[in-house]
Amino acid sequence: MHTVRSTLVVVDSHQPADQILNRARMIASATQSHLHLLVCCKGAHHSSSLDDLQHTMEREGYSVSTQQAWEGNSHKTIIAAQQAQDCGLVITQHLPDNPLLKAVLTPEDWKLLRYCPCPVLMVKTARPWTGGTILAAVDVDSSDVGHRVLHSGIVSHGYDIAQLASGTLHMMSAYPYPLLSSSDPVLQNKESIEAFYCEQCKRLQHEFHISDEHLHVEEGPPDVLIPYMAHKLEAALTVIGSVARTGLSGALVGNTAEMILNTLDSDVLVLKPDDVINHMEELAAPPSSLSGDMATTSWPYHHHHHHPHRIKQSA
After folding, report:
1. What span, in angstroms and rounded, lies between the C-alpha atoms of 84 and 299?
2. Torsion region of 172: left, alpha or beta (phi above 0 gives left; psi -120 to 50 gives alpha)
3. Strand 235-241 with 267-271, pairing
4. Residue 241's pLDDT is what?
5. Rounded to an integer, what distance in angstroms lies between the CA atom of residue 32 and that of residue 115?
6. Distance from C-alpha of 39 to C-alpha of 42, rounded to nearest angstrom
7. Nearest to residue 83, comparing CAs of 229, 281, 270?
8. Who has greater pLDDT, 253 or 226?
9. In 3D, which of 139, 198, 136, 140 has the Cα closest to residue 167?
10. In whole angstroms, how far apart are CA 146 and each of 140, 149, 151, 264?
11. How far is residue 117's CA from residue 156's CA, in Å, rounded to a whole number?
12. Domains and CATH numbers, the chain
């Protein structure tokens, strides 16, 4: 987290900006990163209010730039700005999807999660992070190297944010119902499945100093259990991974991150594996551009033993 040098903050001109700007200020204070404020809108009729906002935040000690742009839709506008400004994090505000349009169109938030080449923080509540609960949700059943790195990245981000915000880190993993027809005896009864998942969590528990009381291994589908656990713990932030890949059709299948967006009543930080980020950067880059080292500003997928600046103000 501490390596973020520039953060893209998407300001919705039709919504109060206090909530998302509080998160942006908190992260900028912790990472000393530059804030690039973006309004996704045609024309330049928000330039005056953006200038006022920039001057206000600069007087508060933040490094700020502003932009109003439109690339046909909001997710393309955001990704274009993220690439142009070399931002390692995007902060945006999540609004409930229109249930009528949801059956016909893919919500813009989903598209942003699918195609954005860097981590995305979706602000959903005004609940302070300072002193709050940070929930890291991992699927420890996937044991290949890419997934293991992603799992460490999810818990590492949760650990760093909990340290910065003087909060409490919890980790959870959802395991499937027993499958009597499975050829693997472990998967045939609840006790053996739960024991397997708890054993898989031990490495992360040890690395990030998570007590058994703060580990939650539960039976059921993750798209149900993650929002349930976040609500039960009154989590201020839930950190999850998005591991599905784009196929030739550009569609992602079975993405838990998309399924739980509406049901989570906490902020949500969505991470992707490094190889997926690299692929997203290739898709987002203009055809004529030279490939640059865009991943250098991404939040790290490795835990660093460092002493981060603690957040002084509530956010």
Report:
1. 18
2. beta
3. parallel
4. 86
5. 26
6. 9
7. 281
8. 226
9. 136
10. 12, 5, 9, 26
11. 19
12. 6-297 (3.40.50.12370)
% of residues, the chain, pLDDT over 90: 50
Q: Is 70 exposed, middle or buried (0-12, 13-18, 19+ CB in 10 A)?
A: middle
Which candidate, 51, 303, 315, 55, places its Cα nearest to that of 158?
303
CA distance 98 to 66: 29
* Least-confidence region, from 79-88, 176-185, 240-249, 298-307: 298-307
Q: Which two tokens stand for residue 291?
A: 């490939």
The secondary structure element, H or E, covering residue 269 is: strand 267-271
How large is the average pLDDT for residues 197-222?
94
Angle at 116 between CA 113 and CA 118, to 5 degrees: 105
CB distance 76 to 280 below 8 Å: no
Q: What are the structure tokens assigned to 30, written together? A: 């912790």
Residue located via tokens 């001057």: 55
- What DSSP string describes 12-79? -TTS-SHHHHHHHHHHHHHH--EEEEEEE-SSSTTHHHHHHHHHHHHHTT--EEEEEE-SSSHHHHHH
Task: Identify the pLDDT of residue 115.
Answer: 86
